[in-house]
């Protein structure tokens, strides 16, 4: 089998971008959505996602001295998976073994995933870039900048203002509007089996 | 104005569309408190199921109903915020996004386009016939019930959000196509009465679009038009194409808007365009040797809609057209969980979309090219009477030609419009409806109209700046409720047609020839809400206890026939036959079979519906001491 390596980077970059975005979102969601009204429902399902990663080093609000760890319920995460599967065939795509397919095949499927994911993101989230400057330009961070919004890397020494190169402009969800779920709904079923009569 | 509308806190406007419903509202109490403040209009976020058990709030409620099989869903998954116990699955009326979603895979259980069925005279609109042609075990509903259900959903959503101000106590304006016949208007009013709405007004959609424009431009609208202007409203929605003409006149120094003409009911809209593209893609794939299955067509329609929007709706700025997307890839995923290798891929180029949509639906035609064969024979009437000619421009040319004299009455003889020419020349144009959001299509439409105008040595028409074309009708409707309270300009309308009852003329029967029919005018053009026409001189005989049928006609070009005028001749196409009327005299106090002579009288209700009544001729003498003459309602919608 011939693999055309020359066309590899472009399509794979797009895929990685989607995956990175979606993964980032799942994390944001896990962090942002603490106990929702449905939490009681899903007690037994907690085991499905046993260790939701919670970075203990980054306090949510600097004003509160006490660090409280929030238990993330998998509910919203499952809901997002359902939406991504519905509109973007996300699980189908990730569960496939790419090695047997040509880039053309992967590209065709990537379009489905990309278009659907975009639709889902646009519908349920309002995403803004944290920094409006162009990437790879020099910016200056004054004292008291929001450390959870801007991460310093590399040669981190000295005191503010910090001057450095903007590597990634960052993303921030300014509004998340996920659909509501009725009480009896089993959110672990992210895609029902389908039988045509 | 009725006396009981003082208590309403809100003016609510409902756009009861063929494919989507929208509800907007305006706080009347707040504007009454501070009249200097500009009236604010909001659009209700309508909670609806998007998937079983998943509730989303959207500004649009898709006008679809799904009749689920018991085994298909579980009861708990149908709960809405206002109904924890929705009843059994097979009885539940499932409307909104979920209905469209489930119906795309199980079309036999999907009720769609109920509004088009509501104005379809070929069927009994009270009969449970939808979904049309489905297996018997699918429990069916009538077009009227479907309409009631959409209103019910909106009403419950409203009451859930505003428990202290139930919808039934608010000022409600429901929009209808300008081309709705009297029976369809009556049915819409009947649907509203079923949700206990008692402060209802019906408003024509193109008029609502004008109100929306007035609202959006603030006081500025007076600078955009002036006396002598003829505004053409072109409203192309998902399922229908609606046309109206509005003349601008002046009275005591104030500008007055007069709705002088409305078009015929044309079932042609954005959905036809998506379908046209889908079939183009299908043909393209077939040429490559790939056969498509029915479910794939569904997916292609959706993909084509997205592609159309990318290629033609370069939405934000004109500048983005330069970004030059010349081709949009269309990928149709497999149904199974295997995505790779089974995804069908093709593409749609800008030229193809241009050719299919712009040339197919908006061809450059001359003003005298009209759609051919507009009417189908009565035999083919089990489906919806979709427009046979997809060219919007030809329908528009026919409308403008037909309405050449529309402004003759409102403009003084000296006014700007010279009488010459073969069509009425609009000087301003207002677009509405999702299709015309596309700058490419809107520009094409404007170019065609201006070509006609320049061919006739007339000034080009201006495009009136518009607001949100998707929500505009609903917003205009709630604004109208505010205008009705005496704030701002009101469009003069009245009946957009003259109505006639057919009388068989007295002459000896000739074998093989239908008895010639004469038309008695019972309701003149422009009759206003709340007025009653003069009772006809002619007497009709009603048989007690038996339904009596009348042939019924409408004309949107004969504007000068007074009530009581009897026509024995009219030109081809001037009168259009409507569903027949039916009157039944109850047998109370009379002998069954007795013939009672009656006069017919028409009135237009405050709601905006036409009412026909039969008045007993002798009652004026016999019963005069007891007060009112005996009257019977004549049914506009005959249940066949």
Short description, anyone?
The complex is a heterodimer of chains A (197) and B (640). Chain A has helices at 8-32, 74-88, 90-94, 103-124, and strands at residues 125-129, 138-141, 162-165, 171-176, 180-181.
| The CATH homology group name of the largest domain in chain B | ATPase, substrate binding domain, subdomain 4
Number of helices of chain A: 4
**SSE class of chain A:** alpha+beta
Segments of chain A where pLDDT lies below 50 for 5+ residues? Answer: 5-12, 33-59
Q: Overall pLDDT of chain A, averaged?
A: 76
Rg over C-alpha atoms of chain A, rounded to the nearest angstrom: 20 Å
Low-confidence stretches of chain B: 1-5, 315-322, 376-381, 620-625
| Tally of DSSP helical segments of chain B | 14
| N to C succession of SSEs of chain A | HHHHEEEEE
Q: Summarize the main sheet of chain A.
A: 2 strands, antiparallel
What's the overall geometry of chain A? Answer: extended
Helix content of chain A: 25-40%
What's the number of structural domains of chain A? Answer: 2
Instruction: Kindly give the count of domains of chain B.
Output: 3
Q: Please indicate the percent range of residues of chain B in DSSP E strands (runs of 2 or more).
A: 15-25%
Molecular shape of chain B? globular
Determine the N-to-C terminus distance of chain B. 35 Å
Overall pLDDT score of chain B: 83
Arrangement of strands in the largest sheet of chain B: 22-26-27-28-25-23-20-21-24
Please report the distance between the alpha carbons of the first and last residues of chain A.
Answer: 39 Å
How are the SSEs ordered, and which strands pair?
The complex is a heterodimer of chains A (197) and B (640).
Chain A (H helix, E strand, L loop, with lengths): L7 H25 L41 H15 L1 H5 L8 H22 E5 L8 E4 L20 E4 L5 E6 L3 E2 L16
Antiparallel strand pairs in A: 1-4, 2-3
Helix pairs in contact in A: 1-4, 2-4
Chain B lengths: L9 E7 L3 E8 H6 L7 E3 L2 E6 L2 E5 L2 E2 L2 E2 L27 E2 L1 H9 L4 E2 L2 H5 L24 H19 L9 E6 L5 H13 L5 E5 H13 L3 H4 L5 E7 L4 E11 L2 E9 L7 H18 L6 H19 L14 E6 L11 E6 H12 L30 H11 L25 E5 L6 H17 L6 E2 L8 H12 L7 E2 L5 E7 L12 E7 L16 E4 L3 E9 L10 E2 L8 E9 L10 E10 L5 E7 L2 H4 L8 E5 L5
Parallel strand pairs in B: 1-10, 10-11, 12-17, 14-19, 17-18
Antiparallel strand pairs in B: 1-2, 2-3, 2-6, 4-5, 7-8, 7-9, 12-13, 13-14, 15-16, 20-21, 20-23, 21-24, 22-26, 23-25, 25-28, 26-27, 27-28
Helix pairs in contact in B: 4-5, 6-13, 8-9, 8-10
């Amino acid at each position: 089998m011939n693999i055309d390596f020359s066309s590899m980077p472009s399509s794979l970059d797009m895929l990685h971008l989607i995956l990175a975005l979606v993964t980032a979102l799942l994390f944001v969601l896990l962090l942002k959505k603490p106990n929702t009204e449905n939490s009681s429902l899903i007690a037994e399902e907690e085991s499905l996602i046993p260790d939701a990663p919670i970075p203990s080093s980054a306090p949510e609000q600097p004003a509160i001295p006490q660090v409280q760890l929030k238990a993330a319920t998998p509910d919203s995460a499952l809901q997002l998976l359902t939406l991504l599967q519905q509109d973007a065939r996300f699980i189908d795509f990730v569960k496939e073994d790419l090695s047997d397919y040509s880039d053309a095949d992967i590209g065709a499927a990537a379009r489905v995933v990309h278009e659907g994911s975009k639709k889902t993101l646009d519908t349920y989230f309002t995403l803004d870039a944290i920094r409006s400057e162009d990437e790879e330009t020099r910016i200056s961070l004054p004292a008291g900048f929001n450390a959870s919004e801007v991460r310093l890397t590399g040669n981190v020494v000295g005191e503010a203002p910090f001057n450095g190169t903007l590597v990634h402009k960052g993303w921030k969800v300014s509004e998340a509007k996920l659909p509501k779920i009725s009480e009896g709904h089993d959110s672990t079923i992210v895609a029902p089996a389908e039988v045509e009569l | 104005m009725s006396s009981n509308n003082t208590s309403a806190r809100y003016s609510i406007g409902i756009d009861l569309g063929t494919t989507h419903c929208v509800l907007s509202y305006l706080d009347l109490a707040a504007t009454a408190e501070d009249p200097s403040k500009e009236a604010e209009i909001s659009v209700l976020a309508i909670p609806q199921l998007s998937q079983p058990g998943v509730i989303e709030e959207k500004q649009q409620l898709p006008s679809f109903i799904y009749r689920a099989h018991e085994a298909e869903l579980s009861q708990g998954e149908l709960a809405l915020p206002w109904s924890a116990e929705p009843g059994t699955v097979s009885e539940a009326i499932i409307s909104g996004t979920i209905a469209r979603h489930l119906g795309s895979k199980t079309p036999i259980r999907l009720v769609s386009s109920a509004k088009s069925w509501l104005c379809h005279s070929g069927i009994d609109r009270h009969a449970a016939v939808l979904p049309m042609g489905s297996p018997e075990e699918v429990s069916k509903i009538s077009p009227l019930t479907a309409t009631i259900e959409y209103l019910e959903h909106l009403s419950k959503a409203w009451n859930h959000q505003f428990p202290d101000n139930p919808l039934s106590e608010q000022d409600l304006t429901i929009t209808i196509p300008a081309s709705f016949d009297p029976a369809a208007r009556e049915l819409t009013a009947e649907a509203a009465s079923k949700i206990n709405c008692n402060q209802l007004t019906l408003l024509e959609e193109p008029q609502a679009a004008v109100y929306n424009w007035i609202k959006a431009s603030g006081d500025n609208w007076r600078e955009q038009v002036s006396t002598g202007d003829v505004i053409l409203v072109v409203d192309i929605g998902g399922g229908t194409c609606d046309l109206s003409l509005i003349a601008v006149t002046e009275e005591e120094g104030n500008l007055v808007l007069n709705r002088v003409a409305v078009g015929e009911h044309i079932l042609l809209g954005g959905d036809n365009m998506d379908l046209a593209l889908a079939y183009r893609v299908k043909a393209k794939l077939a040429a490559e040797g790939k056969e498509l299955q029915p479910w794939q067509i569904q997916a292609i329609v959706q993909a084509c809609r997205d592609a159309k929007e990318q290629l033609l709706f370069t939405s934000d700025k004109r500048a983005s057209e330069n970004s030059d997307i010349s081709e949009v890839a269309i990928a149709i995923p497999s149904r199974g969980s295997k995505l790779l290798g089974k995804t069908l891929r093709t593409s749609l180029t800008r030229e193809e979309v241009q050719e299919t949509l712009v040339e197919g639906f908006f061809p450059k035609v001359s003003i005298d090219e009209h759609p051919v064969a507009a009417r189908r024979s009565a035999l083919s009437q089990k489906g919806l009477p979709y427009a046979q000619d997809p060219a919007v421009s030809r329908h528009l040319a026919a409308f403008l030609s037909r309405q050449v004299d529309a402004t003759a009455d409102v403009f003084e003889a000296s006014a700007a419009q010279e009488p010459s020419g073969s069509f009425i020349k609009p000087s301003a144009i207002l677009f509405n409806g999702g299709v015309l959001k596309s700058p490419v299509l809107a520009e094409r439409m404007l170019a065609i109209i201006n070509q006609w105008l320049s061919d006739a040595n007339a000034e080009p028409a201006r495009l009136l700046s518009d607001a949100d074309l998707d929500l505009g009708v609903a917003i205009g409707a709630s604004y109208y409720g505010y205008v009705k309270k005496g704030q701002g300009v009101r469009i003069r309308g009245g009946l957009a047609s003259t109505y006639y009852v057919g009388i068989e003329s007295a002459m000896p029967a000739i074998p093989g020839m239908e008895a010639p029919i004469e038309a008695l005018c019972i309701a003149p053009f422009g009759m206003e809400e709340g007025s009653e026409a003069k009772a006809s001189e002619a007497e009709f005989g009603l048989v007690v206890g038996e339904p009596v049928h009348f042939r019924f006609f409408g004309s949107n070009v004969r504007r000068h026939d007074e009530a009581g005028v009897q026509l024995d001749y009219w030109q081809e196409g001037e009168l259009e036959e409507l569903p027949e009327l039916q009157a039944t005299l109850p047998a109370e106090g009379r002998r069954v079979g007795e013939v009672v002579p009656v006069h017919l009288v028409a009135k237009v209700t405050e709601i905006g519906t036409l009412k026909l009544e039969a008045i007993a001729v002798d009652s004026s003498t016999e019963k005069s001491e007891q007060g009112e003459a005996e009257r019977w309602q004549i049914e506009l919608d005959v249940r066949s």
